[in-house]
Amino acid sequence: MNRKDEHLLLAKAQQQNPKENDFDAVSFVHQSMVSISDDQIDLTTSINGLNLEVPFYINAMTGGSEKTKVFNQQLAMVAKATGLMMATGSVSAALKDPSVADSYTIVREENPQGLLLANMGAGRTAEDAQKMIDLLDADGLQIHLNVPQELVMPEGEHDFELWESNIRDTIDAVSVPVIVKEVGFGMAQETIQKLLDLGVQAVDVSGRGGTSFTQIENSRRKERELSYLNDWGQSTVISLLEAQPFMDDLTMLASGGIRNAFDIFKAVSLGANAVGISGTILNTVMSEGVDATIKLVEDWKAQLRLLYALTGKATTRDVQKNQLIITGAPKEWAELRGINLYNLAAR
Ligand SMILES: Cc1cc2nc3c(=O)[nH]c(=O)nc-3n(C[C@H](O)[C@H](O)[C@H](O)COP(=O)(O)O)c2cc1C
């Protein structure tokens, strides 16, 4: 089977039993007096000049085959109907084989005015980046970092030497905002510092807790001998704790394991400007169709308004200052890494 088609099916299979994850270890300090009225609530946010109506978007998934073209068209219909920003999957396949370019361009055709991000791996050059941006008339570019996936993938890349120079050159060369993202393994302070030093202005920490690409790629290996890497990486909550020192220097984005509006709200409360969703949207589109997914997105928007009100916060910026109590595994991690959780609890 085509690798991209296989990824869709395996990612959907992972959604069958929605897991507990580290968002369950985040809770709020309830305050009984909130001086706010519904008409003050403003869900808008921005990513380096891209203005979003709501603090969540459809994160990178697919393209590169006939089946993924249909799926991308469905995602674009959801994005258009709901006003969500959307990223395509890695556009590399279209540069290697122009006959599959339409599996990506369908997204722009379906939603000519929508905010659209192109996506590529960090092994790709600045020249490739420009071609992908032009192909989709993209408003921004995501560059993904996916070392664990490449190493577990039977046919994966094992040469990562040019990643840093490619990222630096691409940021210099292209005129749209660039987001460097993980693919579900999360980020550590040291990684984020390195990206900042390379000139990166927006980062999606994309952590563990939802889709696991080590698990997906391992199940494509004949002997499935690397299953011990299924849970490799930092959770999204832990990654956002690691990211705390950089909140003023970078546009912070989060994804990985978002199951509902409360997880989005928690990620924003931990400092994310906006939150990406892949697995949950994939599962809803594939199991229930476009209309049910549009309804899900509209429900989440309404629930976010309620959650902003519940914590007395009018804007997304205000939500980022919510008092948070972090317990369990993320607390243990923070203690060992010297990350101060009292700042979040009593701000
Ligand atoms: C089927 C599928 C394909 C994906 N392909 C890409 C990709 O091409 N580029 C990328 O940056 N991330 C890709 N991702 C990773 C997502 O953008 C996201 O980082 C990850 O799935 C974690 O989010 P989730 O738990 O909400 O799924 C893909 C995810 C899925 C489910």
Automatic annotation (TrEMBL):
Its main location: cytoplasm. Mg(2+) binds at residue 150. Its EC number is 5.3.3.2. FMN binds at residues 60-62, 90, 119, 181, 206, 211, 257-259, 278-279. The keyword Acetylation does not apply. Keywords: Cytoplasm, Flavoprotein, FMN, Isomerase, Isoprene biosynthesis, Magnesium, Metal-binding, NADP. Residues 163-323 form the FMN-dependent dehydrogenase domain. InterPro entries: Aldolase_TIM, FMN-dep_DH, IPdP_isomerase. Substrate binds at residues 3-4, 149. It catalyses: isopentenyl diphosphate = dimethylallyl diphosphate. It is found in: Cytoplasm. It comes from the Bacteria. Pfam families: FMN_dh. Its cofactor is NADPH; Mg(2+); FMN. Involved in the biosynthesis of isoprenoids. Catalyzes the 1,3-allylic rearrangement of the homoallylic substrate isopentenyl (IPP) to its allylic isomer, dimethylallyl diphosphate (DMAPP). Belongs to the IPP isomerase type 2 family. Homooctamer. Dimer of tetramers. This is Isopentenyl-diphosphate delta-isomerase. It comes from Candidatus Enterococcus ferrettii. The gene is fni.
